[in-house]
Amino acid sequence: MTKTRNAVAIYARISQDRTGEELGVKRQLQDCRAEAEKRSWTVAQEYVGDDISAYSGKKRPEYERMLRDIAEGRRDGVIVWHMDRLHRQPKELEGFVEVCTRAGVRDVVTPSGDLEFANGDGLLMARLLAAVAANESDSKRRRGKRKAQEIAESGKPMMGGPRPFGFQDDRVSHHPAEAPVIRQLARRALAGETLTSLATWLQDEGITTTQGKEWRTNTLRTVLTNPRMWGMRVHQKQVIGKAVWEPIITEDEGERLRRKLLDPARRTNRSARRYALSGMLECGKCGNRMHSHPRGQYRRYGCLKGPDSRGCGGVFIYAEKLEEFIAEAVLYRLDSPELHRTLTEDTTAPDEVRALEEAIEADAAKLDELAEMWADGDITRAQMKTMQSRVEARLEDNRRAFSRLTHPADAAEYIGQGQELRQKWHTLNLSQQVAIIKAVLHKVAILPATTPGRHGIDPNRVVPEWRL
């Protein structure tokens, strides 16, 4: 005799719905409704979990809602198209069985047969089906992982997901409008322009991501440091070889972008810059770095005295006139024959650059190791501070040397453009101006004033040290 069930749950799920049409779920629901009608059971609720894998371990809201309804006594049976739609992990099945047993729900039905958990054979069959489903999912995952590796090793792109900026839908052909944008962004970033400035430019130009969104600095950093842009195939975050597509930028540009934009010392929480020469001025009296130090309505740079600054407090200079003077000197130097000769006769040894790069990476790793040793109690805070200061001093020296050796390439975009840049200097944002100055100038020593309180500029006080 057919049992009467007045509050049955139907559960349907399909793990991948690439078209968004939910055809697999609709077919499951049709079959389950037909099974309910055949048994004269009343369906109280349909729970549909589309495009959610039961094997992945992710939350399945509809499945969990059904469990709560069963536990609270609102359901007296379950119809599912196949048991692997309910579970693909044995431990999840055991939880389901426990909930059903406590609630007195004994009928779990599929169009191909019944499973009664109170019956030993029924529970055994459910466990066997869950084990088979788990093995099937694991095998599918291994096959998919191996297939992805094979595609990567061949240098071909992996399809699916949003297309990468700079490439067309085939992931191989360059996008005629976006690829030139990548090249321009790379040149400007290498020349020192900030990601904030570049993202603002993209927004002003109406250029969006491939998903139609506005650019953010993190998104822009990811694009510019992605080895795909210089023709390399990446798999599981590792470069494994050359790709089949042509690079948009050169490998040298790409590696320089990674060093510049992924440097752990690079600050990402800068407040808005107001001083074009911040970090570039040195006190000509005591040798300490000068800082921004406004006085009333006037912007100034000063050698500050105190426990944090440790300067002499004896050298100050007004910012506006100094910045105009330095900008003019930089623009003049960009057009000078001496600078052209410096670049064309560049004798920078690649081995020296590589050695500095390795030393920087090694010291950065040492700082991480020191932090771990302190956290584990292997060294005291005082010991960590002592060793940390030595490593940080060496790291800063190597970074400065590395910057001096690699900056000639960063300045290449501006060489011979002094007159053109002079004409549009006041239309450039501060980030662009700073990038141009830093590409040519290393630092400036400011000597004590011979006439205190002077607002103009005394060129004899300004001693520049040029990178190029």
UniProtKB/TrEMBL annotation:
<feature type="domain" description="Resolvase/invertase-type recombinase catalytic">
    <location>
        <begin position="7"/>
        <end position="155"/>
    </location>
</feature>
<dbReference type="Pfam" id="PF00239">
    <property type="entry name" value="Resolvase"/>
</dbReference>
<dbReference type="InterPro" id="IPR038109">
    <property type="entry name" value="DNA_bind_recomb_sf"/>
</dbReference>
<dbReference type="InterPro" id="IPR011109">
    <property type="entry name" value="DNA_bind_recombinase_dom"/>
</dbReference>
<feature type="region of interest" description="Disordered">
    <location>
        <begin position="135"/>
        <end position="162"/>
    </location>
</feature>
<protein>
    <recommendedName>
        <fullName>Serine recombinase</fullName>
    </recommendedName>
</protein>
<dbReference type="InterPro" id="IPR006119">
    <property type="entry name" value="Resolv_N"/>
</dbReference>
<dbReference type="InterPro" id="IPR025827">
    <property type="entry name" value="Zn_ribbon_recom_dom"/>
</dbReference>
<dbReference type="Pfam" id="PF13408">
    <property type="entry name" value="Zn_ribbon_recom"/>
</dbReference>
<dbReference type="GO" id="GO:0003677">
    <property type="term" value="F:DNA binding"/>
</dbReference>
<dbReference type="Pfam" id="PF07508">
    <property type="entry name" value="Recombinase"/>
</dbReference>
<feature type="domain" description="Recombinase">
    <location>
        <begin position="164"/>
        <end position="268"/>
    </location>
</feature>
<dbReference type="InterPro" id="IPR050639">
    <property type="entry name" value="SSR_resolvase"/>
</dbReference>
<dbReference type="GO" id="GO:0000150">
    <property type="term" value="F:DNA strand exchange activity"/>
</dbReference>
<dbReference type="InterPro" id="IPR036162">
    <property type="entry name" value="Resolvase-like_N_sf"/>
</dbReference>
